[in-house]
Design brief:
The protein has two domains: 2-92, Beta Barrel (Ribosomal Protein L25, Chain P); 99-185, Ribosomal protein L25, C-terminal domain (RNA Polymerase Alpha Subunit, Chain A, domain 2, Beta Complex). The chain is mainly beta and 218 residues long. It is 11% helix and 38% strand. It has a six-stranded mixed beta barrel. Strands 10-7-9-12 form a four-stranded mixed sheet, with no helix packed on it. The protein contains four helices and 13 strands. The protein starts with a strand and ends in a 33-residue tail after the last strand. The protein is elongated.
Length: 218
């Protein structure tokens, strides 16, 4: 994906506020051998780009004053209730240095799973993204998870998900093989409540016989 940025000369709270009024978002590009560089980007273009999954997990081609460089989106600060991006951070990419990135998971094949089709189950997606380590050239936009082999009572773990060439999944904590998808049995519908007695049913008298109607007054 491409993004156009412009050099930013002024910094500080006041300068950033005035910049946002003009429809620009302040930002910074850092990393690599070069010094951090202050930038500004068109707010509307950035806002729409942030809605795309690939913008968060792919290497971006950034043009700054006619100079192209490879970057990754690293941080976004958004206003708590306005549709306003306050600041954005990008990191330069070195082709020879491995990246530590979060990559989204795309789930496919659940409609072909026996657990879903005929065993009354649903697939519970426990994890929606994973941390990976790879060179920039090997960074995938997403990782596909095939659910067609799911069966009742089974789960899909991270080690069951094939990684693209050159990509290594990174885990945190003591669980080195976390559950990615669990198979959950759908609870059976509760039996309908017993039918209420008919509205016109007569109350029973002594001995279980219907109560006699009161005699009409003369």
């Amino acid at each position: 994906m491409n993004i156009v940025a412009f050099e930013r000369a002024k910094q500080g709270t006041g300068a950033s506020r005035r910049l946002r009024i003009t429809g620009r978002t302040p930002g910074i590009v850092y990393g690599g051998a070069a010094q951090p560089q202050l930038i500004e980007v068109d707010h509307n273009a950035l806002w729409h780009a942030l809605k795309k999954e690939a913008f968060h997990s792919s290497i971006l081609d950034m043009d700054i004053a006619g100079t192209a460089q490879k970057v990754l989106l690293r941080d976004v600060q958004v206003h708590p209730f306005k549709q306003l991006v306050l600041h954005v951070d990008f990191q330069r990419v070195d082709a020879t240095t491995k990246l530590h990135m979060k990559v989204p998971l795309h789930f496919v094949g659940d409609d072909q799973s026996m657990a879903i089709k005929s065993e009354g189950c649903i697939a519970n997606h426990v994890i929606s993204e994973i941390d990976v380590l790879c060179l920039p050239a090997d960074l995938p936009e997403f990782i596909t998870v095939d659910l067609s082999g799911l069966r009742k009572g089974s789960s899909l773990h991270l080690q069951d998900v094939p990684m693209p060439k050159g990509v290594k999944a990174i885990t945190h904590g003591s669980d080195k093989n976390p559950v990615v998808v669990s198979v959950v049995v759908v609870a059976a519908a509760e039996a309908p409540a017993e039918a209420a007695p008919a509205a016109d049913a007569k109350p029973a008298g002594k001995g279980g016989k219907p109560a006699a109607k009161p005699a009409a007054k003369k």
